[in-house]
Amino acid sequence: MHRLSSNATLLLKFFIPVFWIVFFGASTLAALFYQYDYVGNTPAIYFKGGMVFFYVTGVLLFAFTLLRLKRVEADGDFLYVTNYFKTARYPFHNVSSFRLSRFLFLQLATVQFQESGIFGKRIFFLASRHLVDGYFAAYPELKARLLNEEEG
């Protein structure tokens, strides 16, 4: 079995969001319980509103980006997808597209399935380029079938 996900998946999926949510959640609660009328030269109501907006925006950003990441492994017949609590096995005939894209210094992969599974019809994972290249070198027939749109 070949791992396709980067080692940074665990850090980005759990540690950074949990640290951020706990730290800024505590800061937001402290701001909401602040008893004075001003924070510096800013009225406390604006400061409290800004803190709540910042916190809710950050939680939503994590929910729609980092918390959606999955860990992916594969062999010759199946794609194994886990969110570290549940694992699903998808046969390759159910994979309709496999796309690799770059975002800043990260290699993001999107897998689209023909039928919905426990993680939905589309999954996202942080790919390790050398692990993906090593996997497709071991299974060139899958590379030709899955990456045909990018090569043509």
Summarize the structure.
With 152 residues, this protein is an alpha+beta fold. The chain is 44% helix and 32% strand. Helix 1 (8-32) runs antiparallel to helix 2.
Could you characterize what this model shows?
The chain is of the alpha+beta class and 152 residues long. It folds into two domains: 7-66; 68-151, PH-domain like, CATH 2.30.29. The chain is 44% helix and 32% strand. The protein contains five helices and nine strands, in the order βαββαββββββααα. The strands form three sheets. The chain has a four-stranded antiparallel beta sheet, with helices on one face. It has a three-stranded antiparallel beta sheet with strand order 7-8-9, with no helix packed on it. It has a two-stranded antiparallel ribbon with strand order 2-3. A hairpin with a 2-residue loop joins strand 8 and strand 9 (120-126). Helix 1 runs antiparallel to helix 2. The radius of gyration is 21 Å and the shape is elongated. The two termini are 28 Å apart. The mean pLDDT is 93.
Give the helix/strand layout.
Blueprint: E1 2-3, H1 8-32, E2 38-39, E3 42-43, H2 44-64, E4 71-74, E5 78-82, E6 87-91, E7 95-103, E8 106-117, E9 120-126, H3 129-138, H4 140-146, H5 148-151
Antiparallel strand pairs: 1-4, 2-3, 4-5, 5-6, 7-8, 8-9
Helix pairs in contact: 1-2
Keywords: Membrane, Transmembrane, Transmembrane helix
Transmembrane segments: 12-33, 45-67
Protein name: DUF304 domain-containing protein
